[in-house]
Amino acid sequence: MKRILLSIIALSMMTSGLLAVPSSADTLLDEATFEMAVNAPNREVYPEAKYVRLWGEKTIELLPDGGYTVEWRNVTRVLTFMGKKDMSNIKYTYDTDYEEIDIYRARSISPTGDSTFSIVVTSDKEINDITPPGLAKAGVYASLQQRVITLPGVDDSSLVDIGARIRTTDVPKKPFGGIEYLAEDTPIEYYKLTIIVPEGQELVYKSANGAPEPRIEGNVYTWTIEDYEGFVPEPQGPRGRNVFPAVYYSTTRSWNLAADYIQKRVAPKVLVDESVQAKADEIVGGLAGRDAIDTLTYWVARNIEFIDITLGDAGYVPNEASTVLENGYGDTRDRAVLLAAFLKAKGFESQIALVSPKDVRIQESVPAIGQFSRLLVTLDDPQTGKRIWLWTEDEYTPTGFLPGYGGEKALLVSPGKGELTEIPKVEPEENNIDLDFAIEIGQSGEMSGTMTAEFYGNYAIDFKRIFRDASPKRREQRIESMVSNLGGAKLDGENAFVISGVDNLEDIPKLTVNFKTDEFAFIQDEMMIFNFPENPVDFAQSQISTSLDEREEALVLATAFKETYNFRVKLPEDYSLAWVSEPTSVSNDFGTMMVSSTRDGETVNYSMTLKVDNCWVEPENYSEARDLMRSYQSPKNRMILLERESADDTEIEGAE
Amino acid sequence: MLKRHRYLILIALAVSILLTGCGGGKSLMVDRWSREPVEKASPEIMELLESAGTRSDWPNAHTVTVYQSDSSFYYPDGNQISASYSLTKLLTMKATKDYTTIPIGYDTQQMTIDIIYVRVIYPDSTVVTVRDEDITDETLEGYAEMDIYWSNLRQKVIRLPELEVGCGLEFAIKIETVQPMLDDMMDYRATFQSTEPVLHSEAILVVPSTEEIQWKVFNDPENRVSFREEIVEDSLHLFHWEGENFPMAITEDGMPSLGQFLTKVLASNITWEDYSKLVYELSAPNMVADDAIRETVAELVKDQTTGLDSIRAIFYYTAQNVRYIGLSMGDKEGITPHDVKETFEAQAGVCKDKSALLAVMLEEAGFESYVALSNPMDHVHKEIASNQFNHMIVVVYDRDGKEYWMDPTDALCMDMLPAYHMTKASLICKPEGDDLMYHPVLPPETQAGNITADSEILPDGTFRSVVEINAIGFYDQVLRLIFQQMETVQQERFWTQMIKNAVHPSAKVTSLTVTPNPIDNLWEPVSMRIEYEIPDYAIVAGDYLLVKSPLSTYVFDMIGLLLSQTTTLTEREFPLNIQFTIGSELEETIKLPGGYNAKSLPSRIVMDEDPASFMMDYSLDGDVVTYESSFMIKMPVIPAEKYPDYRSAVKRMENSGQGMIILSKGGDA
């Protein structure tokens, strides 16, 4: 590492030259960079930002042979501790099979006084390659590496200056195209993206989320963004490509061509050889129709180890079905191939489909397959003719249920044809938790009772994931933990809980728990306060943020859902009901909340329902979600007040 | 020449012992190191797998280890060859999934790893050996998240073929070190027990017979482990531990590191004093200041008026200016600090580098100072001086001899040593050596938050409150950590959401001030002032008006909010590891609205148990209600037998949050 202290008399030659930073020795500041350093904005200018990009350029050039080069340089000013953390280790992912990366500049420039700076240039030992987080198991598929550039000299007022280039060394494993972010949530003073395609080729593109339209000169497309203020992401807002100014681009001219690219690589691998046929026969046995489809899907989900790697990161050419069967593991491509081959072996014609990451919307005008992250198999139900989607990436999802994809677009692939199709939305009732409590309150505030819970949709998937393979002792620990959420209650009795419906995908999981606690209702003087316990099922607690009075971004929830809580509360002797939360309801386009309460002798019947229909709430409709959730969470809607029957009207004397 | 010849014989003999066992165990183990392809498992293996039982025999287990053997031979210079063999039976579908990929971490700088074979034995005795192409070599996961980029930390990822319930897995692996962590040190450990049942386990240690070995078996109340030793050819000393039927350990959330409780043997050829000296001697050449360091030290202490302030100034500098980053810089990354001049120049390093630099800077300022090995996560067994450490910190002596400990990897610790070091061990590395010591437990009052609120209910029903949080010790550090992660807008949103969730969904924060600014100014304790209001806060319940003290929900008490997560189990087999003592004291005054009388207030609660204490009280003075409470966790590690008392205190505290100020109409409007 070289540390050089520069003492340079301030220059004031801010010119257009700044926009094209000249190359210079790492240890010196060229005039433009010096100007940036001297005039860099501080935290007062961007009080909510971690850092600000002062200047950046990226050029992507598609070469006539199908290879490409990507070159970029960014100069960023750190503003806070968190900014320092983010900018201290810069990481770029590349594929060693066909890409080569070169970091040609990596340095920090830190002010040491008026117009003086300390420059710390990153040395070789501060540049390392690591396996990208989460991809260690994917080594058999992908040769992805992450080049980590460590900048020890960065402090919370430094400039970080990084320049790098990637070039292809072999035929790329994926077609040219993708998504380029012009900006994210941090401010940018100047950034330019250039995409160059060979003469005669046309770039299909879309400027999204406020990205400017490009300047086009022949085969050169240039987007420039200046004085972008950035924003503080709102809780539960849209993320990534749904909100950041981005450019979608591709040289593939249509979805038909994109689908054809996939078809040509996947279809030849869907081969039914002896081993695949034998296995399919063994799995299906005497089953037919939908039962056979479900059984094959479940077998792949359960028996082929899932290697989690995004579609495209290892290219689009899967292994042959028999190889996948022999390997016993598969990424999204291999699983789809094996399942399609199994189905074919049993006489079912299926289709391949591509889906995007969950909760992400497809930009339909740009046929870039890089928008998709998963490969699926889909076919028509032989009985109903209705399309069913086969998800094999976990072993708890029933066939036909695509968690988190409802309403998103999938690319259906068939020979020479690509069709964007909407995946059916999930209705709240399909994604439901139903809790039923029969509770008795004792005279000392103790509580005992039974909770019965039924789980549907995502709740059922999560329940099965947690309990199906858990040992008896682990199940007990987990149920104890849930019951503890009922005011510290304990399991009551020897066979205090029963779990059912976790072994088969189509079964509805159900939990019955007997519990008791010595202290729940709170006694003070002649009064007893009973607050209805909140949902104790820790993995099924809905979180909808209403901390903001108004929003500028949409409120985005993972899925529509419904939660129902029914209580039958037997009141203690000698206490009379002074008050119980009154019936109320709110219903709007966002959903419905409803509280009802009735008294039946010594028993109070109370129920609360929350149903959310709309999981993408635009800012102008946010008040509906806010008001509904605030009513749902209001303490006055969750309480019983009891009074000892012999109580008089005495009051507490305040010491005057 | 003769010496070399004898040395080679010694190695050959040792390796032979390692790879054939020492006559004990089962006969099948004799050829367990052969790389020869096997198509069918031997009848002996199949009999072992068969007799290992099924899920019905082991209802809480997913696998059963039929046989495991760990053996190590130490060269006189501290290098070693280790061989491990295991035969495991899969009992459940979960096991077949869990074992599809097996990562084995290793350090290329310190060792070579040879996977002799990994075999799957199917119930029909067919054997499938994992192919070479199904074993990949990757960067070890998890370290990048800690900003450690030692390219020598690798893992072999072994991908197994399709598995089924009833399969056996057979592993044979050899590891050879290329450099010892500490020269001449022979430091051995073997664990007999695990989170799954183990039917037979053996550990073999072979050392030159000239070595004096201290050893001890831990956590073996039923004496399952038997021991024998022998001298072989007058040159090797062989230690052999063996046992059967080790029960599975079922872990619990919040327990200390499981390794502390498993049946295991530790062995070593040195004392703590030797260990201390060795690390000192290894570190000392890299701990020499240059002019740049001296100049910085002089600058840091020039305006300090006390010895402690000088110490703090130097500590804060190394904790905050020298970043925590791990990069490969040369040999012996494990324990040896890089040259402090390099660390100072780079302004970066891991714990050992930052500690070495801090110790040198303190020495330059005239304070006696040493680096110390520590382990803030696990218990260190004092009986055997083996490498049980994973961290390095610093001890310094003020000019009056007062001792201060400090951890320069923690940039937000005003007290210099984070509270999670309580009860944990340290070994000061001195030229004359030192004994292992344990850090004392500090009273919770030294690690506490103090939260006060001045509140009133306005005539229109609006609740308005000003809350102040002040903190010391670990509580101060926790608050700094929270505030440091968030920019101003995010802080305000955070508190708004907290109050909405815990108190009332209509709450609105009107002002938020956090000091010091910047939050990493450790010369000033942290303080927060928050103002908020809630329209229509009181609940109209028939003839009554119900008002709760928001502080009683513990919404502003970062520790109180987390306590329920420590009490999810009704009872425990293992201790609860809080890691530190901590506490909070709360007081809120609420001015009641005119026109109402106090009908009822919650009664006073006082609990004082060994692990924790709790007090809560409400009082009325005119139209002002005062709520007070305190909760103190007095033990960093709560033994299983005292856990019910702790749980009871936590639950009482949580339940007390339901208490209300119940008002009835009357009095002056």
The secondary-structure class of chain A comes to: alpha+beta
Dominant shape of chain B: globular
Q: Give the percentage of residues in beta strands of chain A.
A: 35-45%
Number of helices of chain B: 12
The overall strand count of chain B is 37
CATH architecture of the largest domain in chain B: Sandwich
Q: Mean of the pLDDT scores of chain B?
A: 91
| Cα-based radius of gyration of chain B, to the nearest Å | 30 Å
Report low-confidence residues of chain B grouped into runs of 5 or more.
Answer: 22-30
Proportion of helical residues of chain A:
10-25%
Number of helices of chain A: 10
Described by strand count, sense and barrel closure, the largest sheet of chain B is: 8 strands, mixed
Report on the architecture of this protein.
- The complex is a heterodimer of chains A (656) and B (669).
- Chain A contains 10 helices and 37 strands.
- Chain A is globular.
- Residues 1-24 of chain A have low confidence and may be disordered.
- Chain A is α+β, with helices and mostly antiparallel strands and 656 residues long.
- Chain B is an alpha+beta fold.
- Chain B folds into 3 domains: 2-131 and 157-269, Immunoglobulin-like (Sandwich); 276-438, C8orf32 fold (Roll); 445-665, Jelly Rolls (Sandwich).
- Chain B has an 8-stranded mixed sheet. Chain B has an 8-stranded mixed sheet with strand order 26-27-25-24-31-35-34-33. In chain B, strands 21-20-19-22-23 form a 5-stranded antiparallel sheet.
- The termini of chain B are far apart.
- Mean pLDDT of chain B is 91; it is low at 22-30.
- Chain B is built from 12 helices and 37 strands.
- At the A-B interface, helix 2, strand 7, strand 8, helix 9 and strand 25 of A face helix 3, strand 6, strand 8, helix 10 and strand 28 of B.
For this entry, give a set of tags.
heterodimer, A: 656 residues, alpha+beta, nine-stranded mixed β-sheet, 10 helices, disordered N terminus, B: 669 residues, Immunoglobulin-like, C8orf32 fold, Jelly Rolls, 3 domains, eight-stranded mixed β-sheet, 12 helices, 35% strand, globular
